[in-house]
Amino acid sequence: MKGFKLSSREYQENDTQINIDTYAKKLSIGQGQCTIIAGPCAVEDRDGYLKIASFLKSAGAHALRGGLFKPRTSPYSFKGLGRAGLDIMLEARQLTGLPLVTEIMDVRDLDFLYDNIDILQVGSRNMQNYSLLEELSKLDKPILLKRGLSATIEEWLLAAEYILAGGNKQVILCERGIRTFEPYMRNTVDIAAVALVKQLSHLPVIVDPSHATGHWKMVAPVARAAIAAGADGVMVEVHQDPDKALSDGKQSLTPESFSAMYQQLMEIAALNKTRID
């Protein structure tokens, strides 16, 4: 067997399905579902987040994303509201019933994130933070594992193996682009990796076209390509006024752009299901 034993098709032939059950909403990721996770890059304020959360619920999104802790390149950039933003996200979940996704950067934050967040995200910078992965492996909680900035597919799957080996079988892989020589996009989206990983592994795979491209006009085309290639969903950034966003406004969709993209993705997903059936 390969080094990534537990995540391999040899270990488990059938696709893994991750089931999330909040008090108001049930969500399944994998096994032919097309899951759309959406929201602003960061939770900025109560009114703005609740407004965009309500829109996303009505537009068909399946889960809400929102950064509480943002690993910014510059220490002077907005790094999120931290614990103060959690109450805002919880209010948004109560309002919409949608599961919550946020990034965990430090094991010390598990004491308040574990009981409140439905899916914990490991960002690309922490993909090989093995101490963090080992702590997450002990949880009964879905983990969304982003591919590292320069990680190979094998390194990505081996990072997932750390979580699986500790007993947590709820791992969702997220392709978010890798760093190359190309300057026109934030990162280079590896669509082929989606198709390959779906062959190598039984774990669900989603794509983050917002961080992958860095340009909002590229988000919908890459999202369509991801679903066509077999991805189990996408995670996109949506902001009611991207020009005023405190982080990643250039890659954030407007509500109107999100609605148009959503319809396109559902059509492609339905076509994929017809081909499978």
Provide structural commentary.
There is one protein chain. The chain has helices spanning 46-59, 86-96, 110-113, 130-136, 153-165, 191-200, 209-213, 216-228, 255-276, and strands at residues 18-21, 26-29, 35-39, 63-65, 100-103, 119-122, 143-146, 171-175, 205-207, 233-237. It has 277 residues and is an alpha/beta fold. It has a single domain (18-276), classed as Alpha-Beta Barrel (TIM Barrel), CATH 3.20.20. The strands form two sheets. Strands 9-8-7-6-5-4-3-10 form an eight-stranded parallel β-sheet. Helix 1 (46-59) packs parallel to helix 2 and helix 4 packs across helix 5. The chain is globular and about 50 Å long. The two termini are 30 Å apart.
Write the layout of secondary structure elements.
Elements: E1 18-21, E2 26-29, E3 35-39, H1 46-59, E4 63-65, H2 86-96, E5 100-103, H3 110-113, E6 119-122, H4 130-136, E7 143-146, H5 153-165, E8 171-175, H6 191-200, E9 205-207, H7 209-213, H8 216-228, E10 233-237, H9 255-276
Name of the CATH homologous superfamily: Aldolase class I
Strand order of the largest sheet: 9-8-7-6-5-4-3-10
Strand content: 5-15%
CATH architecture: Alpha-Beta Barrel
Shape: globular
Classification by helices and strands:
alpha/beta
Q: Percent range for helical residues? A: 25-40%
> What ranges have pLDDT less than 50 throughout 5 or more consecutive residues?
none
- Topology, number of strands: 10
Supply Rg. 17 Å
The H-and-E topology, N to C, reads as: EEEHEHEHEHEHEHEHHEH
